[in-house]
Amino acid sequence: MTKLKTYLFFIVWLIMATTSAQVKIEQDPEIVQNNINYRIVQSQTELESYHYYNAQKNLDEALELAEKVGNKKSVGVIYALKGRLQLIIQQEDKALKSLNKAIEIQRIINDNKNLGASYKLYGDVYFAKQDYYAALDSYTAAKSKFEEENLNEELAETLLHEGKVYFQLKNYQKSRDVTEQALAIAINYDYFKIQSEALNNHAIIYSKLGNTEKAIVSGLEGLSIANKHKFTNVTNDSYLIISDLYNNIGNYKLSRKYLKDHLKISDSIRGLNRIYSPNNQETQYLLNEEIEKNNAIVEKLEKAEEDKNLGTLISILSVALITILSLLTLSLYKNNNIRLKTNTMLHKKNGELIIAKEKAELASKTKANFLSTVTHELRTPLYAVTGLSNMLLEEDPKPEQIPHLKSLKFSGDYLLTFINDILQINKIEANKVDIEPEPFNLKKKITNIILALNNSAEDNDIKMHIEYEPGLTENFIADQLKISQILINLIGNSIKFTKKGDIWIRVYQIDQKDKIYTLRFEIEDNGIGISQEKQDHMFESFSQGSIQINRKYGGTGLGLSIVKGLVDILKGKIYVKSELNKGTTFFFEIPLEYTTVEEALEGKMNYFDGDKSDLDLSKVKILVVEDNKINQMITKKILSKMELNCDIIDNGEDAVQMIKNNDYNIILMDIHMPGISGIEATKQIRAFNKELTIFALTAVTIEDKMQEFEDAGFTDIIPKPFKQDEFEKKLYNALAPKQKSSTNA
């Protein structure tokens, strides 16, 4: 008896150990992923072999495993493959549903490679449904993803399909151009199947365009490639296309020859076409599915019959259950037909919205790049306008020329302000504005702003008053630069629209939670006021009171839009109260954090505060690297007036060599030049000279490139067009420590 217990214990222990090991193996992430990958690959093999039911079964098993372990990338791939299978068996609406699930997952996890493939399949489904414009939108979204990921083969295949869509739309010129792009990529990377298919498409397109000779050449070239690489289906298509082309020009002998070749290949694959014709595909798939279900039921019944006591009962219950399930299935089928139609429409609209969002994001990115390029191109000639006007004003012009030169200078400054405002709006809309909190004294900041704007106020005979709530703390942590921009815009606006009046700036507390104070700022004036109609749109870009106001007072209509954007970034709100001919009050409320820390010290000094006469400028050598001839002349003129000598070179490669062969104190480096850029040239210079002072003299948007400038090794940046006094002080400030160190040595 004891021996029997021992045997039983050993058997139980062995079963438990085996089960535990099996559980651990099944839970191993690597093994699970291998199982998923195996089923995905197996389903693709079955798909290529026309075994659709087996492919579906593998995909279902892979999906169950992937969802169980939360592998979203695999889930997305599986849904995309389901969509491909459903497209093949002509279940286009189900394919759209599966692809929507795939796209939704792939967008969330940024799986751009597979997302592009899903978009491409989406286009194939719409092509099958003859919804050609929706297909084009899907192919456009797919191309965008393939280009981002440098997936050239997928891009070429998508272009090939896009060309077929344009052919169906009878836009043969566009079809030819798009197919030509696909062919160029295929030739460049040796994608022979795409080459042969593209050449076949060209043959058909050129035939429609009336160029039969070129069509035959393309068809024969496509046939040659297909034969060489044994692309049977493509070869078969080529024979038929060439036969039709020869028939069109009356060469019936060659037409019959290629037709015979086509029929010969067709006979060899007719069996497959007959077995797997489109109508049979879905039928066979559904039949296999039902057979599998019936086999499962039969297997269960056979097992049940082995039990003599329960066999009859189980059989009766099984029949009853099957009957009930059949009735239930019939009811569900009717309900699902109604729901399927609704879901199909919803999925289609959802897909269209996703593609529209992709197009909107692409448009936004294009707009940002366009603005960056345009502003750079505008700043470069502005450098010439402001530089020449400053030079001419300082060279003792004739009295009658002075007003014209001042007008020219004003126009240049106005245009520069306009460009900066557009860039600010663009950054706000693109969410590229960062908050940089720091300790500061709010009352002191407002006082300094009022002092800075006081001259403009006095020109309009305006008195400004500040009312800071008694007892309200002055030290806060916030982005003081953005608060300054808001106040300068609003106070400047009041000054512009007020004559012989008053402006009040008020600050008081309206709420407090721990260290967070919510302050309300009021800027009130008794100027011309704003109509109720205009108040509704005044925070929109390019919005002004009227054309007459614009002509009389000037301005771009961007200031209040910038203010609204900055207030939103600071998590505040802004509103206005105004009455025509009585005045306007702007209110904005923002949260600020109280601090006991005193105001942060100013950053490094940018301007020279010493005596220029202490500098020995006779031995100073400056290299100006600039490709624009007008800018070269202006910069050289400014340096000459500063009693500084300079050499000029117009490209980065020569600049690097000159710096290796000469001793320069300062380099003024342009960014955009032929050959290597100023950034690349500076990197090369830093490889052999770490101490040389190099200023980036540039018209690019500094905020967007600041990190790139720092990484390249620039000492500082002077934006074009620059203010001459700022330019001079930066140069003198850079020279002062160099001469001091050389004297001490």
Structural summary, described in words:
The chain is of the alpha/beta class. It has 26 helices and twelve strands. It has helices at 2-27, 29-48, 52-69, 72-88, 92-108, 112-128, 132-149, 152-168, 172-189, 192-208, 212-228, 232-248, 252-275, 278-305, 311-394, 402-429, 442-459, 480-496, 532-535, 547-553, 559-569, 629-641, 652-661, 678-686, 702-712, 724-744; strands spanning 438-441, 463-468, 475-478, 502-513, 516-525, 573-579, 583-594, 621-625, 645-649, 666-669, 693-698, 716-719. The strands form two sheets. Strands 1, 2, 3, 4, 5, 6 and 7 form a seven-stranded mixed β-sheet that branches. The protein has a five-stranded parallel β-sheet with strand order 9-8-10-11-12. A hairpin with a 2-residue loop joins strand 4 (502-513) and strand 5. Helix 6 runs antiparallel to helix 7 (132-149) and helix 9 runs antiparallel to helix 10 (192-208). The N and C termini lie far apart (104 Å).
